[in-house]
Design a protein that fits this description.
The chain is α/β, with parallel strands linked by helices. The chain folds into four domains: 35 residues, no CATH class; 163 residues, 3-Layer(aba) Sandwich (Rossmann fold), CATH 3.40.50; 83 residues, Orthogonal Bundle (Helicase, Ruva Protein, domain 3); 63 residues, Homeodomain-like (Arc Repressor Mutant, subunit A, Orthogonal Bundle). A hairpin with a 2-residue loop joins strand 1 and strand 2.
Length: 383
């Protein structure tokens, strides 16, 4: 924007300017009008989610590649196994396996195997007949029959007791369902999608899960990347969640969120945004980095790292256990990577003065081209 061309006096804060690339969150006066520009767009790579359905938001290459794997798996008739940490959106992805499949018009039935008592688990899956046990006042179809023609999502399938693992394997082999208390054998056509937060293969090695059932359930295994390994998605999700509260996050706030470890993944990030939005009050529209100071406090209290263990580009060789000196260098590199080399922003993330950061960089031999500021201002009188 050029002031002389527009014929107006432009002020950036208290300074008169003649040309500028527009900054974020700084009042700009054009004539009698004051503007504040905010960065609120979310550029998701996948735009094929239907109206009313929960999307799996991603701007990262890892997330996009995983979504493509989900879509390809959905178009087969095979069982799908989703392996991911708590809060990574396993049920959301399971639903999209269903919606992207030829079974989309039929039922999607989710069951959390870890939340069902052992005594009722068989009834939940296979159903029961009237009088089968105390409280069975009428016939009840189980989840497998309810999902006939559609998809059954078994979350935390590793928690199924051994006797039910045998019955589930029998169903996968011949489609047979025998309700509790019944001599009658029913049949159902169901696609199984299962998920765990602990790898099923590890449970097999520990003798807690049948190997033959594992092979039937994990026809197509898909690993869901953690949120801490996708800083681009931390940004996209944080902006989305804040926008739901009619709030805007500063760049420093987003950068602080991007270096948190997020052991609870997307679920924990949403809670952090909700807490920050609630703490600033209804009238305040901008969320600053200090509103997330509680993240480092909670990380210290729980013994967790306050920064992501995944390595930024160029530092993949850092060992899992390293010296404090190596870790400090890693932290500096990660902070610089997240802010595209901007020293001032990196210093804010690390909680040190800019001059201290320069000393630390010199000590570790970290060099690199200076990155231009995110915006430039030409003051009146500058050439």
């Amino acid at each position: 924007m050029h002031a002389q061309q527009a014929g107006l006096m432009i002020r950036l804060g208290d300074f008169r300017v003649q040309a500028l690339d527009l900054p974020f969150l700084v009042p700009i006066k054009v004539g009698d009008t004051e503007l504040i520009f905010t960065e609120t767009e979310v550029r998701t790579r996948t735009q094929e989610f239907g109206p009313g359905e929960r999307p799996w938001v991603t701007e990262s290459l890892k997330g996009q590649q995983m979504l493509e794997s989900v879509k390809k798996a959905a178009q087969t008739r095979l069982s799908v196994y989703l392996n991911g940490e708590t809060g990574t959106g396993k049920e959301v992805l399971a639903r999209w396996v269903h919606l992207w499949s030829e079974r989309a018009s039929a039922a999607f039935i989710p069951i959390n195997c870890g939340a069902v008592s052992v005594s009722l688990a068989e009834s939940e899956l296979f159903g029961h007949v009237k009088g089968a046990f105390t409280g069975a006042h009428k016939d009840r179809p189980g989840a497998l029959l309810q999902a006939h023609g559609g998809t059954l999502f078994l979350d935390e399938v590793g928690d199924l007791p051994p006797e039910l693992q045998v019955k589930l394997l029998r169903f996968l082999e011949n489609g047979e369902i025998r309700p509790v208390g019944s001599d009658r054998v029913l049949h159902a056509d169901v696609r199984i999608v299962c998920a765990t937060h602990k790898p099923l293969r590890a449970l097999v090695q520990e003798g807690k899960f049948r190997q033959d059932l594992f092979y039937r359930l994990a026809s197509i295994p898909i690993a869901i990347p953690t949120l801490r390994s996708r800083p681009e998605d931390v940004r996209a999700l944080a902006i989305k969640f804040a926008d739901e509260f009619d709030k805007t996050l500063t760049r420093e706030a987003i950068a602080r969120l991007q270096v948190n470890s997020w052991p609870g993944n997307v679920r924990e990030l949403r809670h952090a945004i909700e807490r920050a939005c609630g703490s600033v009050g209804r009238d305040e529209k901008i969320i600053h980095a200090p509103e997330f100071d509680f993240l480092s406090d909670s990380a210290m209290a729980s013994g967790l790292q306050s920064t992501a263990p995944e390595l930024p580009p160029g530092s993949e060789g850092l060992p899992g256990i390293c010296t404090l000196e190596e870790m400090e260098k890693f932290m500096i590199l990660r902070a610089l990577n997240l802010v595209n080399g901007n020293r001032s922003d990196a210093a804010r993330i690390l909680g040190v003065a800019r001059s201290t950061l320069f000393v630390m960089m010199k000590r570790h031999g970290i060099r690199g081209p200076r990155v231009a500021d995110a915006w430039r201002v030409h003051l009146i009188g500058e050439s």
